[in-house]
Amino acid sequence: MAVSGAILFLYVVAHMVGNLKAFAGAGALDDYGVFLREFLSPVLGYGGFLWVVRVVLLLAVVLHMVAAVQLARRARKARPVSYAHRPKVQGSYAARTMRWGGVIIALFVVYHLLDLTAGVLNPNGVEGAIHANVVADFQRWYVVLAYTLAVVALGFHLRHGLFSALRSLGVASARRAAAVRGTALGVAVVITVGFLVVPFGVLFGIVR
Amino acid sequence: MRYTLRVWRQRGPEESGGLVDYDVDGISPDMSFLEMLDVLNERLVLDGEEPVAFDHDCREGICGMCGLMIDGVAHGPERATTTCQLHMRHFDPAEPIVVEPWRAAPFPVVRDLMVDRSALDRIVEAGGYISAPAGAAPDAHAVPIPKADADAAFTAAACIGCGACVAACPNGSPMLFTAAKATHLGLLPQGQPERLSRAEDMLTAQDDLGFGGCTQTGECTLVCPKGIPLETIATLNHDVLTAALRGR
Ligand code: HEM
Ligand code: SF4
Ligand code: FES
């Protein structure tokens, strides 16, 4: 769980940073897309690097889901009789929404791939015209809303995910506990905001 | 004061159970939760009914025998408090109090509110000890131990094995207990030789007993009567991971 999650996390960070190219003028994002496809192309061919990334991501997503399903099933088996009276658990909101949060993010990724990678759900949907596709998307408030919900869900997922992964990997000893808690929250907020500035930048006409 | 209770009644491990309503009168605010149940039981006996079975021993918060799910919270609403040390002044007489046993597959209900927690003993048997030569107690200063390590070990050693962590965990995991029992030894020089095997063996035993897996939700720490911190789990995981990487 922690290891597959870490791979996905690294991707999310790289993706968030890459998206910020949208602020560098109309051509920057498109050039960046070309760069990603040309990267290592002497060895992998045009777009080869992207396919390597896709395979690794898909593997990580599958492992991540399998681990989540196993944990959920073990949890159900470990408590066959549930409590008659059970108020909302007391722990953090992020921790208690991990399973449903994960499902929401997965559904979003499907929509997102159809939107900005395949282009079929994109109002512009021209391959390679990444910047134009993004701008066309976020003119619409409901697309911005969908992306916002997903990115906020991702933020919660990352908050608990990072916190938990660091503990699973044994990093968060008593001495570093407060630092780990703070880091998890800080990173989650930065990623959430970093993703959201692009849709809102378009909506408010800063990115055009 | 007069309270309404909704108590889980179950005649035996194989029988089905259910919540039964009782009224208890003559409760003082200074009575403990268990004393309140004693009052109920006295009345039930006088009425010729079966008293409610519940576990208890020391009644001073040190033995770990007591443990009830009170209104859905293990050991009730007060933090860092065992059920025997919980007082009735924390309860509103206008609200019925729901009392249930710990719920986990490895903790079968023996009767009413009593569960069999020997699964926790199986985890300790898997490695929660040191195989050192016994004998007379060594001098206190014979082996120097850094204060910070001694403090962390002592915090973990405070676990009384009540099982509240399992009862509260949405995954039904005893990870806080296992971590406390493994790390209080692993942090001290005497526990070093078996540190890695202990961590691995205790975790394996825990999983084999049918408990759920830890996802660090932190519910356990909130109900733990001894306030064992969640970081104890990170310390255990660190040892388990080191053991796995070294391919023990
Ligand atoms: C405001 C937020 C986001 C924007 C503006 C955005 C934008 C984009 C764009 C333009 C592409 C296509 C890139 C190309 O064709 O070269 C893309 C691909 C992708 N995005 Fe996002 N994205 C956002 C959030 C997310 C989030 C939160 C996730 C995951 C949790 C995600 C996962 C992906 C994946 C998996 C791909 C496909 C990469 C591939 O294999 O080609 N995105 N995104
Ligand atoms: S860790 Fe706390 S809640 Fe769990 S058994 Fe020990 S004392 Fe009880
Ligand atoms: S009866 Fe001993 S801890 Fe409560």
UniProtKB/TrEMBL annotation, chain B:
Domain 4Fe-4S ferredoxin-type stretches: 150-179
Family annotation (InterPro entries): 2Fe-2S_ferredoxin-like_sf (IPR036010), 2Fe2S_fd_BS (IPR006058), 4Fe4S_Fe-S-bd (IPR017896), 4Fe4S_Fe_S_CS (IPR017900), Beta-grasp_dom_sf (IPR012675), Helical_ferredxn (IPR009051), SDH/FRD_Iron-Sulfur (IPR050573), Succ_DH/fum_Rdtase_N (IPR025192)
Cofactor needs: [3Fe-4S] cluster; [2Fe-2S] cluster
EC number: 1.3.99.1
One annotated GO biological process: aerobic respiration
Lineage: superkingdom: Bacteria
Enzyme class, broadest EC rank: oxidoreductase
PROSITE patterns the record matches: 2FE2S_FER_1, 4FE4S_FER_1, 4FE4S_FER_2
An example molecular function term from Gene Ontology annotations: electron transfer activity
UniProt xrefs under PANTHER family: SUCCINATE DEHYDROGENASE, SUCCINATE DEHYDROGENASE IRON-SULFUR PROTEIN
Family: Belongs to the succinate dehydrogenase/fumarate reductase iron-sulfur protein family.
Name assigned to this protein: Succinate dehydrogenase iron-sulfur protein
Species for this entry: Actinokineospora spheciospongiae
Highest classification ranks of the organism: Bacteria, Bacillati, Actinomycetota, Actinomycetes, Pseudonocardiales
